[in-house]
Amino acid sequence: MDIDIINKKPETLLKRTSFQAKMIFEGKTPSRTDLKKLLCSKLGSKDALTVISKILNDYGSERAIINGYVYDDEDSMKDLESKYVMLRHLSKAEQQAEKEKAKAAKQAAAPTSGKKKK
Questions:
Q1: Of 9, 46, 71, 115, which shows the fewest CB atoms inside 10 Å?
Q2: What is the 3-state secondary structure (H, E, C) of 56-99?
Q3: Is the pTM for the entire model greater than 0.85?
């Protein structure tokens, strides 16, 4: 798998740097976690502050374009990124734990009706 950074643009007001990378791979499209590790080594960034927003590839093609961001700090990342995007970057077990945690919080916050069943 080969990754080249095509474009890197600082966005100082949003406290992040956007990037675009070109990837050539064999077989199936690599997972986000594998891509994130490679991109962090190429960009010299921390794993926790790197977000992949899109992986664009054509069906049957072994090339892809990757769009993403490297944030300056964790607070700006949490303010700007959606929850579902952040969930994509977790492992399957962590995703399930987060979903169950959200479901339990939703059930706890749901109002109970004052009527009793007979």
A1: 115
A2: ECCCCCCEEEEEEEEECCHHHHHHHCCHHHHHHCCCHHHHHHHH
A3: no
